[in-house]
Amino acid sequence: MLPASSLAAMSSSSPVIALKEMVSRLQRETSKIQELLASLSFALRSFNNLNQFFELIPLISCRVTEAEAAALVLFRADGQARLEQLHCHASDQCPNIRAALETATRTLANSVGIMTTDPHGDRPRLEHVLDQQLQDRLPAGIQFYGTTILVKDTNLSERGRLYVFSQQPTYEWTETRQQLLQVIADQTAVAIANDEMALKLRDRQRLDRELEIGAEIQRRLLPRHCPKIQGLDLAAACRTASWVGGDYYDFIPITYGLADSQDISQGRWGIAIGDVMGKGVPAGLIMTMTRGMLRAEALNGHRPSRILQHLNRAMKADLESSHRFVTLFYSEYNPQTRVLAFSNAAHLPPLLWRAETGTVQRLDTYGMLIGLDERTQYQQVEVRLQPGDTVVFYTDGITEADNPKGDRFEEARLAAVLERACAKGLDAQALLDYIFAAVIDFIGVEGRISDDMTLIVMRVMD
């Protein structure tokens, strides 16, 4: 036998050894938990596939809370739920837990719908309904605990529920375990939010690419440069407020009745400017449709008023269904006679500066918007131009441009700018630049271009 002194020494040292072992065990448990949470954080930073990240959630939840099973349930926007992942660790109740979860999630939407039909009740939280459904379906002896996955978007929204299960009678849902499960739920919420932001970014990039392609197509449909028309100096430009605009202008060679040996610049030319109500892709599509139909009509040799009438009848149904309309000014210039014949479908009338008198007049006729009323009749007027005369075609982005005070550029100011520019003897391109500069100066550095701006300058040379 050991001496009494040795027994006394051993007896006195046992609590110390037990305490050291307890501290060592706690350190190992803490280290294990830290490693698991670190692994989860690494996965959050590294995984591009959200499903791969979801596979880790129940596994780590089991380990850090010492539960026998854990499940991740996600909510959908329509109030339904889906069992995303289930992990069972040494539990013979796994089939029963899975069956209870699948049944509870499947009936969640109906339960929420029934409960919200009560006019005297408030809309129940999805987590409370799901917990009750799960409680009713789990076998006796299985306890479960859960925490909600909340994602911050416009506000805090429930995106799912994270559960742990245990059938051990001595299992306690301690504050530490609650905190650990909440940490995992928060990491899951971050992963969901990151995935949604990445999806929105990809959608935005795809949309930007589509808009870029649409803008490129539209740029190609607009004239790349002004044609050479006998006796005319031309300049034109379109500045869109967004990727794709609704403004339209065109120069159409009318070869109908032109001799094969005759230079195309000596023949008649259609000059058009239009504006589709609205901006963006829908307006751009309608503009493209208008361009194709207008060219087809012009090449058939119809006079301007008849062309607008045909367009109005042909486009009425499509424009009405899209709740958009088109303003269009179409003119035909004959270089041999210097006669400009025109018809207007409610577009802003071009301004004609007469070199002989130094005055400005409007070129306008009666006519309704394209697509408003198929019975509309369009008038046609002819004006003979003289050397030095200048015609400016424009869209409402010019006259409706506003400055920070709320004042608009308006037609009167455009006419005054035109008079000053023409008095300087500027050519067509310099005159166009002069007008655009005046509009930009009026808007100011704090202003912005809120609508497409299109200009055509036609100057009759001496």
From TrEMBL:
UniProt protein name: Guanylate cyclase
Domain of life: Bacteria
Assigned keywords, A-Z: Hydrolase
One Pfam family it belongs to: SpoIIE
A molecular function GO annotation: phosphatase activity
Native source organism of the sequence: Parathermosynechococcus lividus PCC 6715
UniProt domain PPM-type phosphatase: residue ranges: 229-460
SUPFAM superfamilies: GAF domain-like (SSF55781), PP2C-like (SSF81606)
